[in-house]
Automatic annotation (TrEMBL):
The lineage of its organism: Bacteria, Pseudomonadati, Pseudomonadota, Gammaproteobacteria, Cellvibrionales. This is Enoyl-CoA hydratase/isomerase family protein. Pfam families: ECH_1 (PF00378). Belongs to the enoyl-CoA hydratase/isomerase family. It comes from the Bacteria. InterPro entries: Ech1-like, Enoyl-CoA_hydra/iso. It comes from Zhongshania aquimaris.
């Protein structure tokens, strides 16, 4: 399979069953442009369509992760639909915000686990982005800064919701309402980040190793764990236990389970078949979608 796909706003390549989405405009502080919001869901859908991708790693080139949404894009939103009447303008702006929210939510909704490796500054919309990852890794020099309230509006792309569903209410209120920067150590201590590295180089190594270890495990088990964790957050423990029983009854025993038991007996690493290659389902077989090559 082709291990690279072409996008305007980031690099995309596949190594050892891990799809690397790399913010690659350090000269522009890795700002999240209009192209980024359009292309991210395409990249995730492309990863889902390939049977050989078992983890997604989001990282960045340069000294900082991202300065957030391109300010030129924010300026354009201020006058969006200004020629329309008040009700139509409100509807137009609401749908615009929903479309950008959906661009980020694709990371949460994909069955593939998503790891975010965050170095340097992570500001505003970039914080919304990493909030949607399953696992966040930081380096000690990282600063995580919600910017929106300093610009006079509520963060509207998921930071408020995802942080409040995960961290104590008072911790989130203190962080967001004060628009203060958390260090990598702060993020690790409150549970926002699960691991911390001492340098950007160590972070990259840590993130790649973790993503590749996840990718080597049974994709059925890993995808199931992500689905059940999301279900538990939404519906609680009792409902999730019942859901897990139904899920497990369909997956146990399967080829991956048998392979894990055989490998353990034979003292070797297990290997698992690819997931179904369903690119034809997504209409991208034989270059059927021109924006991904």
């Amino acid at each position: 399979m082709n291990n690279e796909a072409e996008f305007k706003s980031f690099k995309f390549n596949v190594e050892n069953m891990v799809a690397h989405i790399v913010l690659s405009s350090p000269e522009k502080r890795n700002c999240l442009t209009r192209d980024f919001w359009r292309e991210l869901p395409l990249a995730v859908k492309y990863a889902e369509s390939r049977g050989d991708i078992r983890c997604i790693l989001i990282r960045a080139d340069g000294a900082m992760f991202s300065a957030g949404i391109d300010l030129a894009l924010l300026d354009s939103l201020k006058v969006l639909g200004s020629e329309l009447d008040v009700s139509r303008r409100a509807d137009y702006l609401r749908r615009t915000i929903l479309s950008v929210q959906n661009s980020i939510s694709c990371l949460e909704q994909t069955p593939i686990p998503v790891v975010a490796a965050i170095q340097g500054a992570c500001i505003g919309g970039a914080l919304d982005l990493v909030c949607a990852a399953d696992i966040r890794l930081v380096e000690i020099g990282t600063t995580l800064t919600p910017l929106e309230m300093d610009l006079g509006f509520v963060p509207d792309l998921g930071t408020v919701q995802r942080l409040t569903s995960t961290l104590p209410y008072g911790v989130v209120a203190d962080w967001l309402m004060d628009c203060r920067s958390l260090t990598g150590s702060d993020a690790n201590s409150i549970g926002f980040a699960s691991r911390i590295a001492q340098s950007p180089q160590e972070l990259t190594e840590l993130a790649k190793n973790l993503a590749e270890r996840i990718a080597r495990r049974s994709p059925i088990a890993v995808r199931g764990a992500k689905e059940i964790m999301k279900f538990t957050k939404a519906y609680g423990v009792e409902a999730s236990l019942r859901y897990t029983a139904a899920w497990q009854s369909g997956a146990f025993p399967g080829d991956d389970i048998n392979e894990c038991f055989d490998a353990r007996r034979e003292k070797r690493a297990p290997t698992h078949d690819m997931m179904v290659d369903d690119r034809s389902l997504y209409g991208i077989e034989d270059k059927g979608r021109g924006d991904i090559t």
